[in-house]
Amino acid sequence: MSSASSSPSVAVLGTGIMGSGMARSLLRPGLSVRVWNRTRAKAQVLAGDGARVCAEAAEAVRGADVVLTALNDGAAVAAAFQAASAGLTPGALWLQTSTIGEEATLELASRAAELGVTYYDAPVLGTREPAEQGKLTVFVSGPPEGRESLAPVLDAIGQRSVWVSHEPGAASRLKLVANTWVINLVGAVAECIGLAEALHVDPRLFLDAVAGGPLDTAYLHAKAAALLTGDLTPSFAVSTALKDSRLILDAAQQAGVRLDLTQASADRFARAEAAGHGDEDMIATYYAGRTEQ
Q1: Can you identify the CATH homologous superfamily of domain 10-167?
Q2: What is the mean pLDDT of residues 112-127?
Q3: What is the CATH number of domain 173-289?
Q4: pTM of the entire structure?
Q5: What is the pLDDT of residues 237-272, one digit of tens each?
Q6: 113 Cβ contact list (under 8 Å, min separation 6)
Q7: CA dihedral in degrees (10, 16, 17, 21; nearest 10)?
């Protein structure tokens, strides 16, 4: 590393909901952070937090010990990495935190190897608030040799790191399983609130009925509150949930598994997106349950 192992320099490529949150979490313990985003304005807001904003991806990664990507899908990650390739330092560690599925993960790992960069398949579990607070769960697959060097970065962005395997792909598979739970859980919240309202039941009575019992979850109350207050500021957008649902369904089909609930969730997200709710929080799948949009 160009600096002490306890304080690696980090380049963050992609400063949307998750990338900006992780960048701020990296800055809090005093790590040197450079940021880049295709739309510069999204990166510029981090200047006030102490990040160095770069006009080019290659500039952001030049001399960085760790390159962290946080973009929407495999194509966006590949494009950013290609744009950054001229500035990469041989031996740098690439922490790829986006949910992109196993196929894209393996393709990117191969590209990283060609450039002399060590790839870590590291999708994160969590949304806006955990990213901002450094409380994500990070699933990691990659060579154990870089574990110590990555520790300050992983400690800054997450409350827990789960080392899944030495080989890329395994962490992405685990992330698809975890996202299946999240996606179907949010659909259940949306349907319960929708049905309560249709039956002239105060949704708060339902929330109170399950509170503190084995059927209760913090996620239920958080997503229900978003609906009931009308605050659909995205912590995880409908369009992103639809993308992840399709990744899950593709993986399931290849594995010979039928996921009826996830297919139904994907259909609801698609209807919500078509109705103009794509940029809202994923609980806006609620609106896909209405017979009149």
Answers
A1: NAD(P)-binding Rossmann-like Domain (3.40.50.720)
A2: 97
A3: 1.10.1040.10
A4: 0.93
A5: 999 999 999 999 999 999 999 999 999 999 999 999
A6: 119
A7: 20
